Amino acid sequence: MKLFVDTNIFLDFFLEREGCDDVERFFIDSRRCRNRLLVSAMSLRDIGYLVQKKTHDWRITRELQLKVYSIVYKVVHTTADAAIESLYDDWKDYEDCLQYNAAVENDCFAIITNDKTGFKDSPLPVYTPKEILEIMASYQQAAQ
Length: 144
Description:
Layout: E1 2-5, H1 7-14, H2 20-32, E2 36-40, H3 41-55, H4 58-71, E3 74-76, H5 80-88, H6 94-105, E4 110-112, E5 126-127, H7 129-143
Helix pairs in contact: 1-2, 1-3, 2-7, 3-4, 5-6
């Protein structure tokens, strides 16, 4: 299953915010289930900026950005077409719309986020880590 991982998932995990335990289980189970996790290059930039702002330590920031590469299957770029499409889409949050369009361009099954409100207009399924863990468990049970 190809899943697009929103920026806040990594921030929750790295900054140990609420829900970080579900995120950790999601990462572990995704590897075990051979899910392909995608993240946007824009997310890497945002993660770096926000972690640097919180820690004031570029070494920690760089280490966490490199850790993203060890977790994900692929870092995807936002194309010019997706950026332009996002300008015309009627979403309140341009960044979330860019994430959505990147997920669509890369044929993702769903978007994984802890802030579903930004994706309420998404035709693509949007799940929290806890919700996708339940779906993954049901797929595994059906396969047995």
